């Protein structure tokens, strides 16, 4: 199969390109950039790939659909909201790593993204692709989940789906490395400011909040909101979503562990580490989400720690999971990665 | 006045020694080390002070009481539980930076510290010294608060004292730099393991939990426990205590801000930054506790971020605050410090 | 005395402002900003000083000379080259932290700074202010040395002045934290790029090279150039200049150590640590330059490690040293700083 | 083929195990640990591999030779010096990642390693395995090079082999991340000490010096020593060896670049980046050595920057290169790795 990738210059695009190169079913990758007006070698467009002279083509949806079997968008928010129409109209498969088509509601998009939304009928045609819960098989347009949303939803799923917690007690304290903020320069991610520091940002305003709530509602319609806070860590890669919730009456550690194992033991990428709490480092370099927990019998709360590599399970890796579902490949094809370890 | 310092080799002791050297009312500092059998120059005992030939004396309580007006203990847990008796018996002022005398209950101490406790009657004579709430004036034995306890209690005080939140909804996600773990080598604080990582540790078992609960109970006797988790950051200095709680009916942001300002506007070291959330870096190098907050009207929760320099407000700085109260010095004497900034 | 400070928003300006506030002889500080058109509170101009409502005035040389006894410029390169004339014309004392007036040769300035130079006659009137070697006493315009130049020149001085090495064998491998690059955002100092990395930059092109050579020539006119390379460290503050040179015949470790001690034992801020090699951390927070060395009897080379806090001895601290010399204050006035230690 | 690995618990052993698992020609890996007395699951012996129940066997040379085609030692210095005899006696292939058999001279070993050496006749039978210059084909015992030695020798080879520089002017300022120091805890690698710091260590005493000199002598017998210094960076992985040398008369940048390209253009893992100086980050995750340079026509020096991932090209990766040579596999088998990028 042949795959198109739009946006190889951003961090997620770079990593996705590496994964696709290692994917056994992807025979050819065509690169496109919506800022180019004529073709240029990859080594020029993305100097990090210095030895690769492969061309990057200007963006052309017709060409993309003619020459490829699927297109990945690793573009910033605000791009695919404008570009999604022809693919949906032609039933051509898209895997969109941006947040543009994750929400079903145009008003929500505008409120949280501060940008014009795609037409709402298109938004509704896109399917949210949290790979462990929604198969991309048979879909046209897969909205690949956000990094924070992935770690948080995987951490919450068994608790919410099996009604083990008081949903109005959920508190999520999520932390991310700086790569999540992308290549764009900012004071917050200036080394002198970010190093030796911890910075809460976008309090109650992070654009992954509506995405999390939308998915939680599918699992439990009584949920209408969530207390969720994002903090910038002085590390490059990785997310930890630390989740707190009050256990429902009669729920104990054994019940909870069983729920997590029932949910994830068949999943190749989600590992339940029981009461051995995972560190961020143990998942870096992999598409894994490791989840551990601690029940506090005094307070009646459970704390769940869910960790991912934001560039892999939180972006490019999950995009490949969705590719594998779309085309009925082995679930782990292209994702048999070993952790960085140190 | 003349001050004795026992334990100049640990991180808190080093910083305390620096503060005492800069304190306008401290005329002379005598150093003691309970591991020495004979005097040795400071440059040998603590090579970080390479140019100082000042003697460090073996530990001798009689000598300490004869030659000084106060003694500071910057020793590890388990030391002052054995040594506190003569000072209490003689009414000689002690400021104890260790956790040995913070709790009133010997059973609690043994449960959380995994060490034999001091006799409970002595434990009860020691006064917990959270400087903004308990004056050390007139006290004999001041138990200087723990670093996490300081950040957390200062962050919670207005909410709990003024009954603005549902106390059973409190969740504290606290983060600390590695210096809080001291000089003792461990795998957790080995650079290769700690760098680029985030590690939750001692889940529901941190020894500052009973200290926090004991103090909260003074403010609201209905509190019997707290959901509190500690995470190791890949930074050297600083603590952020991120506190979540559900607001009581009718409490809004204005009410809360007023409560914080009423509580702290007269305090020289606690700064309420309103909705401008503080970063760890902004307090490093100072004895300040900066507190900001974000009310979420959708969830009905408030998030409070309370940051301190764990070595200063979380240890040596607060010890000097307690000294100033004990001896009726200016509250800011010796603590007029400027932030590191960058 | 009253001091004017132009440029409080940059890193060096912030630190200098802190030092001046703590200086016993500075009664009043007036702040100016050449980008302002009308006065504004400091908390607005430099939000890092959130609690300070002190006014920052628009730049006005006449006002500065009327209201102050000295002016500090903590502005970027290219500013004082245009502004220096009135001060020199009026004999009004200036301490200039920028590189604009350090070189004597306008052509050199243009070559290395890629900007128009000040008139060469003004450049020659400015005195280079490496505080251990040129007294600012009696000067009008002091060009405060660059950070790399300070560490390197102090490390080289005894070797060059006393002709202990083959000057054409000198190799300097200098490393700096990111704060040296200032607040300006760049890809090189983006956290995601700088963290976990080491980046050589401006190879053979750093603008401190001609400044170092100019000063070395004063000490040994046979020197015409120097092999000097700069590397960006993933730390915030601090410089280490690692210097290598071949020893002249008959020079051994004892000779060298004597030379360093003869040169620096009377200097309050330069500490010769002999063969105990200094780390960057040990000088952070101080105006010190610590220098240690290792003689290799097999290769006949000496390696000298010279470390400074680039913000203090490398910028604001040395500026205060120059102030003290200009006004005949105690050499350590305002600079009695304790190291950060951890 | 079947491979034995002794020492999977150390950092290099962990990474080597990962590489062998991904090697197309390695059908089975047997793990051994010389500290075990009976078999234990890998998840217990090296908890980082939590999901692997594969057995780790006690060390038994006879068993190793019976069940495998090659043995890798990823053990600390001082182990294989005692264990090498049976393999050499039986002509059984060994790839030894430790430094025990790299030197030919027992006296040198004892001087630099401070441990008893292997019998010198055995030391001479071991072949130093800098993969770009000595083929392991037909060898029995390959001494895999040290990390610093690899970066430095690859950086120096064209200059020394083609006599382009004055060899007595060579100065190497080498820097490494903390993983090079291994899992062993030490104050130097305690996070609180190593973070925000730069520490020169083992001045003129690093055990890789004699190994570098021994190899350089093969290339130019007039070399008898080298000026080489090691510095600990506050990063986890990676080495940069910054090399300075005076160019011989008539040698210019074009000559040098040609020499590097002639030497390395056929090598799959060494990339000459010309005057685009490499960063450490660009090789992390790969077996590459990237080399760039800057000629200074004023000083007549060349600076060469040579970067590697110390865990891969500096240890486990080069060990696999040697495996490929020993068994005549594709040179890049098992080493087709993509850089971490961010």
Automatic annotation (TrEMBL), chains A, B, C, D:
Q: In which pathway does it act?
A: Amino-acid biosynthesis; L-arginine biosynthesis; N(2)-acetyl-L-ornithine from L-glutamate: step 3/4
Where the record annotates domain Semialdehyde dehydrogenase NAD-binding, the positions are: 2-141
Could you name the active-site residues? 147
In terms of PANTHER family, this protein maps to: N-ACETYL-GAMMA-GLUTAMYL-PHOSPHATE REDUCTASE, CHLOROPLASTIC-RELATED, N-ACETYL-GAMMA-GLUTAMYL-PHOSPHATE REDUCTASE, CHLOROPLASTIC-RELATED-RELATED
Catalysed reaction(s) here are: N-acetyl-L-glutamate 5-semialdehyde + phosphate + NADP(+) = N-acetyl-L-glutamyl 5-phosphate + NADPH + H(+)
InterPro entries reported in the protein's UniProt record = AGPR, AGPR_AS, AGPR_dimerisation_dom, AGPR_type-1, NAD(P)-bd_dom_sf, Semialdehyde_DH_NAD-bd
Keyword entries, A-Z: Amino-acid biosynthesis, Arginine biosynthesis, Cytoplasm, NADP, Oxidoreductase
Q: What does this protein do?
A: Catalyzes the NADPH-dependent reduction of N-acetyl-5-glutamyl phosphate to yield N-acetyl-L-glutamate 5-semialdehyde.
Q: Which organism is it from?
A: Lentilactobacillus raoultii
Pfam families cross-referenced by the UniProt entry: Semialdhyde_dh, Semialdhyde_dhC_1
Keyword Oxidoreductase in the entry? The reply is yes
Recorded GO molecular functions are: N-acetyl-gamma-glutamyl-phosphate reductase activity
Q: Which family, according to the similarity comment?
A: Belongs to the NAGSA dehydrogenase family. Type 1 subfamily.
Q: What is its EC number?
A: 1.2.1.38
Q: Which gene encodes it?
A: argC
Compartments, record wording: Cytoplasm
**Is S-adenosyl-L-methionine found in the keyword set?**
no
Enumerate the NCBIfam families for this protein.
argC
Enzyme class, first EC level, given as a word: oxidoreductase
Per the annotation, which location comes first and is thus the protein's main one?
cytoplasm
Entries under SMART domains matching the protein: Semialdhyde_dh (SM00859)
Q: What is this protein called?
A: N-acetyl-gamma-glutamyl-phosphate reductase
Q: Which domain of life is it from?
A: Bacteria
């Amino acid at each position: 199969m042949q795959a198109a990738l739009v946006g190889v210059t951003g961090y997620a695009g770079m990593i996705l390109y590496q994964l696709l190169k290692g994917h056994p079913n992807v025979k050819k990758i065509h690169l496109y950039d919506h800022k180019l007006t004529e073709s240029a070698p990859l080594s020029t467009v993305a100097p990090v790939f210095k030895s690769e002279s492969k061309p990057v083509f200007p963006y052309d949806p017709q060409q993309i659909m003619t020459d490829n079997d699927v297109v990945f968008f690793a573009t910033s928010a605000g791009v695919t909201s404008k570009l999604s129409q022809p693919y949906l109209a032609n039933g051509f498969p898209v895997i969109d790593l941006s947040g543009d088509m994750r929400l079903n509601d145009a008003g929500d998009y505008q409120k949280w993204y501060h940008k014009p939304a795609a037409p709402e009928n298109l938004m509704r045609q896109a399917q949210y692709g949290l790979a462990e819960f929604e198969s991309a098989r048979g879909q046209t347009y897969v909205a690949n989940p956000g990094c924070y949303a992935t770690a948080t939803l995987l951490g919450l799923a068994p608790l919410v789906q099996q009604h083990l917690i008081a949903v109005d007690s959920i508190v999520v304290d999520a932390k991310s490395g700086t790569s999540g903020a992308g290549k764009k320069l900012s004071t917050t991610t200036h080394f002198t400011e970010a190093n030796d520091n911890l910075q809460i940002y976008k309090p109650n305003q992070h654009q992954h909040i509506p995405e999390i709530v939308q998915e939680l509602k599918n699992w439990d319609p009584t949920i209408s909101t969530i207390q969720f806070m994002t903090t910038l860590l002085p590390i490059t890669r990785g997310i930890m979503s630390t989740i707190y919730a009050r256990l429902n009456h009669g729920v104990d550690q054994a019940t909870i562990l069983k729920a997590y194992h029932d949910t994830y033991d068949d999943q190749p990428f989600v590992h339940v580490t029981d009461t051995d709490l995972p560190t961020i480092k143990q998942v870096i370099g992999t598409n894994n989400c490791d989840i551990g927990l601690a029940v506090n019998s005094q307070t009646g709360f459970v704390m769940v720690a869910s960790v991912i590599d934001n560039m892999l399970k939180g972006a490019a890796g999950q995009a490949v999971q969705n590719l594998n579902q779309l085309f009925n490949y082995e679930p782990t094809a292209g994702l048999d990665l070993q952790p960085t370890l140190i």
